Amino acid sequence: MAATLIIGGTGYIGKKILEASVKAGHPTFALVRESTASDPVKGKLIEIFKNLGVNVLYGDLQDHESLIKAIKQVDVVISTVSRGQIPEQAKIIAAVKEAGNVKRFLPSEFGNDVDRSQNVVEPAKSAYADKIKIRRAIEAEGIQYTYVSCNCFAGYFLPTLAQIGAPAPPREKVTIFGDGNAGAVYNKEDDIATYTINSIDGPRTLNKTLYIRPPGNVYSFNELVTLWENKIGKTLEKTYVAEEKLLKDIQDAPIPLNVLLAITYATFVKGDQANFEINTASGVEASELYPE
Questions:
Q1: Cα separation values, 213 from 176, 236, 278, Å
Q2: Which keywords label this protein (predicted)?
């Protein structure tokens, strides 16, 4: 089993991937900052990791020697760092290249496929550009990789029916962006983690994008609303936000709302998660690859 290092393992999807790695039997390492260990909440999470058998290593992206030391102990490096740290993954790339022992690197992606999302607008476009830059740097250094395109986190979007800023799913009124017919992909976080770990040491995902896009997980917004209406036994009042109105809202909204709205535009209006066929020369679909 491949020894695996997760960088960002105390984050939203990082902790799921770390747990999946342990469950699959991989020797699992987590690189955490010493300041994280002293955090009341994340410190408890680190103790849980230790009890699971995770090898907790202390280091930082800014500390090259700690990166090298951690990376030299593993076969696979998985980054799940937050959006703000995406450019700093260049430091991981440099360390992986110097260490020379890593068989595969999975950068922090976990969203739309940035190389295939043709309709993203600013300011999300710049965030996507950062991920694209990291991809090209990995390839330029000759580092073996897998990119994970997991699309929507079901646990983030579905509890509120993707109503921005809402604390609960709608009971009276619902906002639908565009005409509501574009398909989006909703995956459980535990499934994303399992598929990610399944992909780390098999030849079929080497130097390819792993698309987590099971056909049964693709829904238009209109379909989601209908499912919810059937569940609550009530028809909701629907407000459709036209494409032009949403584009203006993106321009007028403050950070980080404008980023979220820009991703909403690409995903729910333009259908960038499901509006293309997977190129089998460069990508594979997870549920086909791992039907179990």
A1: 22, 28, 10
A2: NADP, Oxidoreductase
Q: What is the separation, in whole angstroms, between the first and last Cα of the chain?
A: 19
Residues 96-113: b if buried by 16+ CB within 10 A, e if exposed: bbebeebebbbbbbbbbb
Q: Which among 15, 131, 208, 270 is annotated as catalytic?
A: 131
Question: Cα separation of 127 and 259, whole Å?
Answer: 9
Q: Determine if the pTM surpasses 0.85.
A: yes
Contact 118, 17 (CB under 8 A): no
Inform me whether the pLDDT recorded for 51 exceeds 90: yes
Residue from 75, 71, 154, 144 nearest 110 by CA: 154
Strand residue runs (E) in 141-274: 146-149, 152-153, 173-177, 183-187, 208-211, 218-220, 237-241
Instruction: State the Rg of the chain over Cα.
Output: 20
The residue type at 249: D
Residue type, 59: G
Query: How many alpha carbons fall within 13 Å on the CB side of residue 19?
Result: 15
The answer to whether residues 241 and 177 touch, using CB atoms and an 8 Å cutoff, is yes
- The model's pLDDT over 146-185, given as tens digits with 9 standing for 90+, comes to 999 999 999 999 999 999 999 999 999 999 999 999 999 9
| Residue 173 appears among annotated catalytic residues | no
Peptide bond into 203 cis (omega under 30): no
Domains and CATH numbers, the chain: 4-151+187-215+275-289 (3.40.50.720), 154-184+216-269 (3.90.25.10)
